[in-house]
Design goal:
Helix 1 runs antiparallel to helix 2 (about 55-85), helix 1 (about 10-40) packs across helix 6 (about 160-185) and helix 2 (about 55-85) packs antiparallel against helix 6. It is built from eight helices and four strands, in the order H-H-H-H-H-H-H-E-E-H-E-E. The longest helix has about 30 residues, at about 10-40. Strands 1-2-4-3 form a four-stranded mixed sheet, covered by helices on one side. It has helices at about 10-40, 55-85, 95-120, 130-150, 155-160, 160-185, 190-220, 270-275, and strands spanning about 250-255, 260-265, 285-290, 305-310. It is elongated. The protein has two domains: about 10-185, no CATH class; about 190-310, no CATH class. It is an alpha+beta fold.
């Protein structure tokens, strides 16, 4: 009398497979986000609104890959080692379900990718930037699909050397992508300097609009920034966040309707941000700019070091209020 052994999954196996699937999906999405951000930086689109290569997106993608991709490799190593010892587990329901779900998701991504490509092509909207993004999705999704398609057929169990080569290739690809991303987003130190510079620009914008309000109320420019302090409205002069003593920003009246405000910046404005500004051209030592634009569209580009914004108030746009 013969008995058949039905493979079953322990709680340990279930969570190992589930953990590997979650780590795989998160790593794949993060890798694509990272590649998209790098492509956005390499091929900026003049029609894109604002800075579409988000540094925050890159940071999250890098952090996710640094933690979850090695975790995925560890899960797969443990699972493959266990399968080599217990061949009957290859037919476990948990392994098959999660593998087919992965095949379905990656296959769907490939199909959608091709449909979008053809649709954009027919609409005449194919650009170099878009093609690179399509290739990124196609390469990443196809690689995952092929790997798990062969895995369900137990190909890697009989070709262990090739399996190691694929693992090494994946690690190299992810590492190179992260290094390239660091070249785009900069080191953590550079990120901090950019955030400080961003705060300085925000402070100057606040001061500028208080100056405009002072002009409209009194018909003249304030001779010094301390005149802008208003306990009633609660406005307090912002100070340079980088100085230990909280040094004030530099302000000077040039003529009746012209003034300039200055700050000491750490870095030059990122190229992508400058391409989406109204001026769009090279930056000089100072930026003359009549106040024709709302604050969100004014030219706030800057070079590294002490940089001044020269502003000319147009009395037609900012008339003095009648008493």
């Amino acid at each position: 009398m013969t008995t058949s052994h039905t493979p079953h999954s322990s709680v340990r196996d279930f969570f190992l497979h589930l953990g590997s699937a979650i780590a795989l999906y998160a790593s794949t999405i993060s890798l694509l986000n990272l590649l998209f951000a790098v492509i956005n930086a390499r091929f900026p689109d003049i029609l894109a609104y604002g800075v579409d290569s988000s540094a925050e997106l890159l940071r999250v993608a890098i952090a996710t890959l640094v933690i979850l991709f090695p975790l995925y490799l560890i899960f797969m190593y443990v699972l493959n080692t266990d399968l080599a010892k217990h061949a009957e587990k290859r037919d476990s329901s948990v392994r098959k379900w999660l593998t087919y779900i992965t095949l379905f998701l990656t296959g769907s991504a490939i199909v959608v990718d091709l449909v979008v490509l053809i649709n954009r092509f027919l609409g005449g909207e194919v650009t170099e930037r878009f093609i690179w993004k399509v290739l990124a999705v196609l390469v990443v999704a196809s690689s995952v699909f092929v790997y798990y398609f062969l895995d369900i057929k137990n190909y890697w169990q009989t070709h262990r050397i090739r399996s190691r080569s694929v693992a090494i290739g994946a690690v190299v690809f992810v590492l190179v992508s992260i290094l390239v991303a660091f070249g785009v987003v900069g080191s953590p130190k550079m990120q901090r300097l950019q955030r400080i510079d961003s705060q300085k620009v925000s402070d100057l914008q606040s001061i500028q609009w208080q100056i405009i309000n002072y002009w409209q109320q009194k018909g003249k420019l304030p001779q010094e920034l301390s005149l802008l302090v208003d306990p009633l409205s609660g406005f307090v002069l912002p100070k340079d966040p980088e100085t230990h003593l909280g040094k004030m920003y530099t302000y000077a009246v040039i003529d009746k309707q012209t003034f300039q405000i200055c700050a000491d910046f750490n870095l030059q404005t990122p190229k992508i941000a400058s391409m989406n500004s109204p001026e769009g051209g090279p930056m000089g030592a100072t930026v003359p700019d009549t106040l024709y634009y709302p604050s969100g569209n004014e030219n706030w580009e800057h070079d590294a070091g002490v940089f001044c914004y020269k502003r000319i108030i147009d009395p037609d746009l900012y008339p003095v209020l009648k008493k």
